[in-house]
Amino acid sequence: MTTTDDHAVSEEQIRFDLPSERRLYESLSDYWHPVAYASQLGDEKPIPATLLGEALVLARLGGEVRAFRDLCAHRGTALSLGWVEDGALRCAYHGWKYGSDGMCTEIPARFGASIPPRARLTPFVAAEAAGLIWVCLSGEPRYPLPEFPYFEDPAYRMVEVDVYDWNCSMQRRIENYVDFAHFAWVHDGVLGDKNEPEVPEHGIGRVGGELRFDHPHMSEPADSAKNASLENDGSPVEVEIDYRLFMPNTILVDQSIPQLSQRYLLFFSVCPTGPKTSRCFTFMGRDYGFDDQTDQDMLDFNELVISQDLPIVQSQRPEELPMDLSAEVQIRGADKVAVEYRRWLKEISEGVL
After folding, report:
1. Could you read off the pLDDT of 44-60 as tens digits, one per residue?
2. How far apart are the C-alpha atoms of 320 and 245, rounded to whole Å?
3. 256, CA 20 to 30 Å: which among 32, 120, 158, 350?
């Protein structure tokens, strides 16, 4: 591309001339994103996934998780329709076989013939951690993988919530998850009380690739499904919550119940499947109620909260979070987390790290 004075314009300048929201979306390729639960991917069958509009195939090859563009080099067939055979990925259409590095190792229709160098797949960097499969499209993630130190701790019981998709941007979904002011209204009697809507003072700061903040005090109904298995006298459950927001898409909610010396955990991560669509993954953890009924109670509780948030968030316009802080009204104190999150996203869109 050239300007009218015939001077070349750099790819970086072209990108910067795009609207901020579009620049942010393109910049997300430099970060780890969840694309599937590790439990979804077996040893014999690949699975499809979508990240930032890119169709992926995930497979366990050579003992490791691999991610490729879901496209056979021969006729463009989805490799996720194939299977794993002898540590390699077999295409369902003509039987082409690909090794863990993405190179074609066998073309059944040409016995003994050499394999063209172009017969290879497009690989992406993948990792398995905290019960999820993560992919970074650029191959150079800006920050380390999000941490969930309790995931394999036997002191906690983990529940995997079914994957769900929303028609909103990843940023809108994440902001909704950490919006303190909506608890009293959207989740009245579940997570908050509309008679006590004021958001308490709370601290916030950056630590490495994280936003860390707290909710110093919140009172929850004792009879909610989430609290039903607690050994409580029926009085409201007083909680203190620490948040770790691993930029740009993952949240660890560490909720302590001081009066009972117990803990409840949420590990929530959002995949931007497209600019205005997102896929959500959640683990719920606790150090009490190690039984199937409590598992179901927790799932029912989570489903209730999600169903209350869904119509609200999907109604928001624009679906992409505005990078201009003046585009929407911000309230000092109550919107502190949202403001800091948006500021960091703006820095990501502008390449400021």
Report:
1. 999 999 999 999 999 99
2. 19
3. 32
